[in-house]
């Protein structure tokens, strides 16, 4: 064994450059994978631990009856929209036998404002909640100062305190649903031991401030401490008998909260993992190709050795040991690099605006084991499969065999692939026709279809491209096109890596541009107001509700219209409902009425966004926290007010306030009087600037900004793509190097009969360009089809139409080809420096 | 055109080691109308080729001076490892000499850079290897035309037709090398070497892998290219019967030119070989 090990080591050292490339591929894949796992663990693990610790003393939680799942919002971390509890629920809970303590928890919107500007940006929400005095039930603990007692006193979480540079005793302001309030910080609190509750910035208020600040009639929930010695299940059963409540046990509640806190990260994790999978796939491709060639070369040698009596194990076992050696070294390097690289990934994620990733990384042994298994396992498998195949060849055949793989493409393989492709297309078409996600799953069969058809595609591509290549580059073109077909299996596996890469870019580009379009088009077409006041975050309204009135009072302003948005449940689905003043808003934002009269909203009607005028007269039931709104449809409008959470229904503002309460404005539209527009704008700007949580844009700016959230997301995707692309390029470089070493005799011959170094390099680059182009083009085509079906099926009203960003796709395609050519440049250069005769004799 | 084989001008192709001046080479070629070095299609002067360095170094060519006359068929023979292939490679610009000079016509190969050397190979030299002569991705016709196409030209249709019909390749032109027999492949390689009408064709054991009849066929083609078109050909062979097709035979032993036999027959060649003790 040690002899085998030593000879494996010698062989690795002998073909160093090839193995450096292979090793680099494994290393990068492992690094990418482990960084992704560590990052998602860190994000998830810290949040989950913190929640479990903070809620450790809570035995049960009494909440309102669930109306439906929520799209998110402050105080709705539980992930559902619930009917409000009765005002006296806390007392009733306390009276139940076995309850040792019960504390009402009021949760609403509260944003800390220091020196006129709000504290904290990013995706976390601003939450105001009452301070629970009972230390068993309170998730927060005082770290400094004292608890708030009087209205006007607050405690803030430690990360807010450090972000704002505030200490107990400082004077601050708090923006809530009822406007701006002056406050004194009396203390700083931690969420269990953590600086902040996951995804939240918390301001803690005394009970006395709750009615005036949070504008709530009843607590959001009641947290319950069950007495020692009582039967918990029994107490929970008793609690459940109270009218209009749902009771959750402590552990269940913790789990729900954990899920809710980590679910916004879920999609990031999914994206990251998808990229990691692509990276690993590309890595495996590279390793597999390398070892296939190594084995094929050794096969002749092994045929000879076996013909003179060596056992097959003695001959090919070395290859596996070699793989183990490379796999292990590269994996260790990859693990180290990946853990160190978490910071890079963090920075990338930061491009989306997710800023909660503070604190140390959690490197779990599971992450290490998964990544290491993938690294070493993939390498071993990639060596073992070709080694087995070679060992199965009879010695004489192996002797006769050339190093090249057979050129014939198995027709069975292609037929199965074509069958799968047909299934995928049929699935996609059916999915679109029936708007069914289940059928869409069938469309995913396109990936195995591509894997199976790959060699046939490459062969066909070589055949079809030959005349074109010949016209463009003469005999060099024919050679390059022909070379593609010499090892269709290897070419296709490289192409697959590239295909996957481009397909992902394309998919994201299509989704992103469709999103941008959906988010932006209503604003582009409907906005009439001169100025627009927007909230701090697109997801959640943060405009002081008194601001609209103050702007309206300015002499330079002719009219003002505000928009409030609340979440309600319609037909069991969460729906954004807009509250407007129907007499003012339509002149500032053209909702494009299709049927009916928006003025009838005043008499208690509902307007729906859609294009079906026959909806008029139907009754809509919207369930809100405080009440159920049942109203006839009096108008159908074609447009909503734009943005991610644009309302799908509109009601009169007063009706919405009555049904929900505690609403801030999402948008305020302002029309200026004729005259000095610059001065008028300046006057409004001054007011808005003095109001934290609100921002002023002109009409043009607002149009331009709508969809900018999507752009931030796109930055992140781009960043990931550079990483995946880099690995794919290693693949191209590797394949090119392998192809060259396999064909050195032929290359030597070309040189001997008069191809100059330049021409040789051009042939090699042309071949890489052809392969990259075929792969990128197919990837793009598949992604357009799949992306289109995906959006058609799942887009709904959020993504009404598919927008294919042709220019961007063309650029991507161009970049992929250029990058492929660049990746081939080094091996091409290397081979062109080798003396002619050496090449010729290598081929023998 | 060129004289009949075994004609009159086959003297002193081997020169003394001191003869450095190309003009000296036309000594004894007065029978032709051409003058000076033009009579040598290719030439080595004081050629030394050393492989490796230090104690393990091998001297493959040891001060060889030889001219391969234009319009003639020269065979090169000698024991294995004697330096025949090395000599061909250096004369054909595939490899560089350690010292001494190699000429193709009047061109001193040592003065050319890689690019010029490559251009020279495709325009003025034809080369036939023992095996693996063809680019597998190209058809027979494309392979035949490869050197010309690389120079951005097409061989004249007349010459192509002539060569193709002489080598009886007409019906195989659109096949790829894998679809051709070994003999056919070698014929394609010969066609490629001949079609551009290069100044000199080098063939290193072109019939080494073929059965006797197919080999004879190829030799016949080479012979007629010399006879009909005045083509200059230098061929390495181990087979006295093959050497008998040549106008003269150069014997190489231990990196030196040992002997030259004019108008050889299989028997005379065999005699010399026996004289070499092998
Ligand atoms: N690349 C090389 N490196 C080192 N030595 C070499 C190399 N090529 C040839 N030689 C040595 O140079 C000498 C001449 O080799 P060459 O190939 O010219 O012989 P040859 O006459 O063609 O033999 P054969 O009839 O077997 O083909 C031999 O001793 C050989 O070992
Ligand atoms: Mg030889």
Are there runs of chain A of 5+ residues with pLDDT below 50, and where? 73-78
CATH topology of chain B: Rossmann fold
CATH class of chain B: Alpha Beta
Rg estimate of chain A, integer Å? 33 Å
Q: Order of strands side by side in the largest beta sheet of chain B? A: 6-7-8-3-9-10
**Proportion of residues in extended strands of chain A:** 15-25%
Largest sheet entry of chain A:
10 strands, mixed
Shape of chain A: globular
Count of alpha/pi helices of chain A: 24
Number of DSSP strands of chain B?
10
Domain ABC3 transporter permease C-terminal (chain A): 274-395, 721-835
Family (chain A): Belongs to the ABC-4 integral membrane protein family.
GO molecular function (chain A): transmembrane transporter activity
Membrane topology (chain A): Multi-pass membrane protein
Describe the structure.
Chain B: GO terms for molecular function: ATP binding; ATP hydrolysis activity; transmembrane transporter activity. Chain B: One of its GO terms (cellular component) is plasma membrane. Chain B: Keywords: ATP-binding, Nucleotide-binding, Transport. Chain B: InterPro entries: AAA+_ATPase (IPR003593), ABC_transporter-like_ATP-bd (IPR003439), ABC_transporter-like_CS (IPR017871), ABC_transpr_LolD-like (IPR015854), MacB-like_ATP-bd (IPR017911), P-loop_NTPase (IPR027417). Chain A: One of its GO terms (molecular function) is transmembrane transporter activity. Chain A: It is a multi-pass membrane protein. The complex is a heterodimer of chains A (844) and B (278). Chain A is of the alpha+beta class. Among the domains of chain A are: 198 residues, no CATH class; 206 residues, no CATH class; 146 residues, no CATH class. Chain A contains 24 helices and 24 strands. In chain A, the strands form four sheets. In chain A, strands 15, 16, 17, 18, 19, 20, 21, 22, 23 and 24 form a ten-stranded mixed β-sheet that branches. A six-stranded mixed barrel of chain A has the order 5-7-12-9-11-10. In chain A, strands 4-13-1-14 form a four-stranded antiparallel β-sheet. In chain A, strand 5 and strand 6 form a beta hairpin. In chain A, helix 2 packs antiparallel against helix 20. With 278 residues, chain B is of the alpha/beta class. Chain B has a single domain, classed as 3-Layer(aba) Sandwich (Rossmann fold), CATH 3.40.50.300. Helices cover 31% and strands 23% of the residues of chain B. Chain B has eight helices and ten strands. Chain B has a six-stranded mixed β-sheet with strand order 6-7-8-3-9-10, with helices on both faces. A four-stranded antiparallel β-sheet of chain B has the order 2-1-4-5, covered by helices on one side. In chain B, helix 5 runs parallel beside helix 6. The radius of gyration of chain B is 18 Å and the shape is globular. The N and C termini of chain B lie far apart (39 Å). The N terminus of chain B is likely disordered. The chains are: A alpha+beta (844), B alpha/beta (278). Bound molecules: adenosine-5'-triphosphate and magnesium ion (MG).
């Amino acid at each position: 064994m040690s002899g085998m090990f030593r000879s494996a080591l010698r062989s690795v050292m002998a073909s160093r450059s090839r193995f450096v490339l292979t090793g680099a591929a494994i290393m990068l894949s492992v690094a990418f994978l482990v960084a992704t796992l560590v990052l998602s663990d860190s994000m998830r693990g810290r949040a989950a631990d913190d929640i479990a610790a903070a809620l450790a003393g809570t035995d049960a939680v009494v909440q309102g009856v669930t109306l439906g799942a929520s799209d998110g919002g402050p105080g709705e971390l539980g992930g559902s929209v619930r009917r409000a509890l009765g005002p006296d629920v806390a007392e009733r809970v306390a009276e139940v036998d076995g309850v040792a303590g019960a504390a009402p928890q009021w949760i609403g919107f509260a944003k800390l404002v220091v020196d006129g500007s709000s504290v904290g940006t990013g995706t976390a929400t601003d939450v105001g909640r009452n301070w629970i005095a009972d230390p068993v039930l309170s998730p927060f603990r005082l770290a400094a100062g004292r608890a708030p007692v009087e209205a006007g006193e607050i405690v803030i979480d430690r990360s807010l305190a450090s972000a704002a540079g505030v200490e107990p005793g400082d004077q601050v302001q708090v923006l809530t649903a009822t406007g701006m309030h002056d406050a004194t910080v009396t203390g700083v609190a931690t969420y269990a031991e953590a600086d902040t509750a996951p995804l939240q910035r918390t301001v803690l208020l005394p009970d006395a401030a709750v009615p005036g600040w949070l504008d709530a009639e009843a607590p959001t929930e009641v947290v319950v401490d069950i007495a020692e010695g009582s039967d918990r299940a029994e107490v929970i059963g008793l609690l459940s008998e109270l009218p209009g409540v749902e009771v959750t046990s402590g552990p269940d509640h913790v789990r729900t909260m954990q899920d809710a806190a980590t679910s916004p990260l879920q999609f990031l994790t999914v994206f990251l993992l998808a990229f990691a999978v692509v990276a690993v796939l590309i890595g495996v491709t590279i390793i597999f190709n390398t070892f296939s060639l190594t084995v094929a070369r050794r096969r002749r040698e092994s045929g000879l050795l076996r013909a003179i009596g060596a056992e097959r194990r003695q001959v090919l076992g070395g290859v596996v040991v070699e793989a183990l050696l490379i796999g292990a070294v590269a994996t260790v390097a990859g693990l180290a690099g990946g853990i160190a690289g978490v910071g890079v990934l963090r920075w990338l994620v930061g491009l989306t605006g997710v800023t909660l990733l503070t604190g140390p990384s959690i490197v779990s042994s599971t992450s290490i084991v998964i990544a290491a298994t993938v690294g070493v396992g993939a390498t071993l498998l990639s060596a073992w499969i070709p080694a087995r195949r070679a060992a199965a060849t009879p010695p004489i055949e192996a002797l006769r065999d050339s190093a090249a793989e057979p050129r014939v493409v198995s027709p069975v393989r292609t037929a199965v692939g074509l069958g799968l492709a047909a299934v995928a297309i049929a699935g996609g078409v059916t999915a679109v026709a029936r708007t069914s996600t289940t059928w869409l799953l069938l469309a995913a069969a396109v990936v195995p279809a591509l894997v199976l058809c790959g060699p046939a595609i490459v062969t066909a591509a070589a055949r079809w491209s030959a005349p074109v290549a010949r016209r463009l580059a003469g005999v060099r073109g024919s050679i390059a096109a022909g070379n593609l077909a010499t090892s269709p299996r290897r070419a296709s596996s490289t192409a697959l890596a590239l295909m996957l890469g481009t397909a992902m870019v394309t998919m994201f580009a299509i989704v992103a541009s469709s999103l941008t379009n959906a988010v932006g088009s209503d604003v582009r077409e409907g906005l009439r107001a001169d100025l627009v006041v927007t909230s701090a975050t697109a997801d959640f309204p943060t405009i002081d509700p008194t601001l609209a009135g103050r702007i309206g009072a300015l002499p330079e302003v002719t009219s003002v219209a505000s928009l409030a948005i609340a979440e309600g449940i319609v037909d069991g689905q969460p729906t954004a409902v807009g509250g407007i003043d129907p007499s003012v808003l339509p002149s500032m934002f053209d909702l494009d009425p299709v049927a009916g009269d928006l003025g009838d909203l005043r008499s208690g009607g509902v307007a729906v966004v859609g294009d079906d005028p026959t909806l008029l007269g139907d009754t809509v039931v919207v369930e809100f926290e405080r009440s159920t709104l049942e109203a006839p449809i009096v108008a159908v409008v074609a447009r909503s007010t734009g943005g991610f959470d644009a309302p799908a229904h509109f009601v009169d503002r007063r009706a919405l306030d009555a049904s929900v309460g505690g609403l801030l404005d999402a948008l305020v539209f302002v029309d200026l009087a004729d005259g000095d527009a610059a001065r008028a704008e300046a006057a409004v700007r001054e007011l808005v600037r003095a109001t934290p949580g609100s921002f002023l844009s002109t009409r043009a700016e607002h149009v331009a900004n709508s969809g900018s959230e999507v752009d931030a997301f796109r930055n992140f995707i781009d960043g990931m793509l550079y990483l995946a692309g880099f690995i794919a390029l290693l693949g191209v470089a590797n394949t090119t190097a392998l192809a060259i070493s396999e064909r050195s005799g032929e290359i030597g011959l070309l040189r001997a009969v008069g191809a100059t170094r330049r021409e040789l390099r051009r042939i090699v680059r042309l071949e890489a360009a052809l392969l990259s182009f075929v792969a990128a083009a197919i990837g793009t085509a598949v992604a357009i089809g799949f992306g289109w079906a995906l959006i058609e099926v799942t887009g709904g009203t959020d993504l009404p139409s598919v927008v294919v960003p042709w220019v961007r796709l063309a650029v991507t395609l161009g970049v992929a080809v250029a990058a492929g050519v660049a990746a081939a440049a080094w091996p091409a250069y290397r081979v062109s420096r080798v003396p002619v005769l050496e090449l010729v004799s290598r081929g023998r | 055109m060129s004289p009949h084989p075994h004609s009159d001008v086959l003297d002193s192709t081997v020169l003394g080691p001191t003869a450095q001046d190309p003009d000296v080479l036309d000594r004894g070629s007065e029978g032709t109308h051409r003058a000076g070095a033009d009579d040598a299609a290719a030439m080595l002067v004081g050629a030394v080729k050393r492989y490796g360095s230090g104690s393990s170094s091998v001297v493959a060519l040891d001060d060889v001076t030889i001219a391969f006359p234009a319009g003639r068929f020269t065979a090169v023979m000698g024991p294995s490892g004697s330096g025949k292939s090395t000599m061909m490679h250096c004369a054909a610009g595939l490899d560089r000499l350690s010292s001494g000079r190699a000429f193709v016509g009047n061109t001193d190969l040592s003065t050319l850079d890689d690019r010029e050397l490559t251009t020279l190979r495709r325009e003025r030299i034809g080369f036939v290897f023992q095996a693996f002569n063809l680019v597998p991705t190209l058809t027979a016709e494309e392979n035949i035309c490869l050197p010309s196409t690389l120079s951005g030209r097409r061989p004249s249709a007349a010459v192509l037709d002539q060569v193709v019909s002489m080598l009886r390749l007409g019906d195989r032109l659109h096949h790829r090398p894998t679809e051709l027999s070994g003999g056919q492949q070698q014929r394609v390689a010969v066609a490629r070497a001949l079609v551009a009408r290069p100044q000199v064709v080098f063939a290193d054991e072109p019939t080494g892998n073929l059965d006797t009849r197919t080999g004879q066929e190829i030799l016949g083609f080479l012979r007629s290219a010399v006879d009909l078109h005045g083509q200059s050909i230098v061929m390495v062979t181990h087979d006295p019967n093959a050497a008998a097709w040549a106008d003269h035979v150069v014997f190489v032993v231990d990196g030196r030119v040992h002997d030259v036999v004019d108008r050889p027959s299989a028997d005379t060649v065999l005699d010399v070989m026996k004289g070499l003790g092998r």
